[in-house]
Amino acid sequence: MRKHTAILVDDIPAALKLLENDISKNHSSISIIGKAQSVVEAAKLLRKNEPDILFLDIMLGDGTGFDVLEIFPSLSSKIIFVTASDEFAIRAFKFAAIDYVLKPYSDADLSNAIEKAIQQIQPDKEQLTVLKESITSPNQRPKKISLHTMEKIVVVDLDDIVRCESDNNYTKFFFSDRSKILVTKTLKSYADMLKNYQFLRVHQSHLVNVKYVKEFMKSDGGYLILRNKETVPVSVRKRTEVIEALNTI
Asked: Is 105 helix (H, G, I), strand (E, B) or coil?
């Protein structure tokens, strides 16, 4: 079995030791060649050795994990992000469609992350930009979101999304330029993710960006007319919520 080298970066000594012990005990295919507790220490290690896998905490005492990546823009190491339980960090990872290991993690979580890293399932630079912007500005509305299709990952502007429509366990995204893509997650996951950003679940099968709503028609059970002249049904259960939301725009 081929050995994979790893460097661990975490500013909390106890967390760093725990990760080291878990990897040494349960993942014999990984050889730890260095540990760091700061951006500076990580940079010194990475200048000498580029590991196969870099376990990287987001928040470090003298900066962030993104600072490490910016120092080494051509780093070929596979990155496993390790983060504490923080609602803003978790939201950021979801918007960027990037996997992460949440502390405290189970061995199954760690094993899954290592397997994906070895298989070279890695975020691209656009996804990392989405992640960085979401984490460094947690109180601002995210500008972009990463979407997984069957073939690729697409980074899009939230403001360009007109609506989303359920397609069994998939979701169709419709954009302002009339293009559309099929994404490999359920509508519910996006409704939960986007509910605080002017997206309204108007029906079990429909999520709408209120920016594109032109009118709410009360006839025929209720439906929306969008600015592109498309119509979207409003369920009876959602009718009051939709009216209240549109009245606040």
From this structure: coil
Q: CA-based angle 9:13:15, to the nearest 5? A: 70
**End-to-end CA separation in angstroms for the chain:** 60
- Measured between alpha carbons, how far is 249 from 242 in angstroms, rounded to an integer? 11
What does each C-alpha distance from 173 to 128, 156, 208 come to in angstroms? 22, 10, 10
Kindly report, residue by residue over 74-121, the tens digit of the pLDDT.
888 888 988 876 666 777 777 777 778 888 888 898 998 888 888 866
Long-range contacts of residues 61-65, Cβ cutoff 8 Å, at least 24 apart: 61/11, 61/37, 62/38, 63/38, 63/39, 64/39, 64/132, 64/135, 64/136, 65/9
User: What is the pTM assigned to this prediction?
Assistant: 0.67
Among 5, 98, 31, CA closest to 58? 98
- Tell me the DSSP string of 114-149: HHHHHTT----HHHHHHHHHHHH-TTSPPSEEEEE-
Three-state SS sequence of 43-100: HHHHHHCCCCEEEEECEECCEEHHHHHHHCCCCCCEEEEEEECCHHHHHHHHHHCCCC
Count of residues in the chain: 249
| Cα dihedral sign, 19-24-25-28 | positive
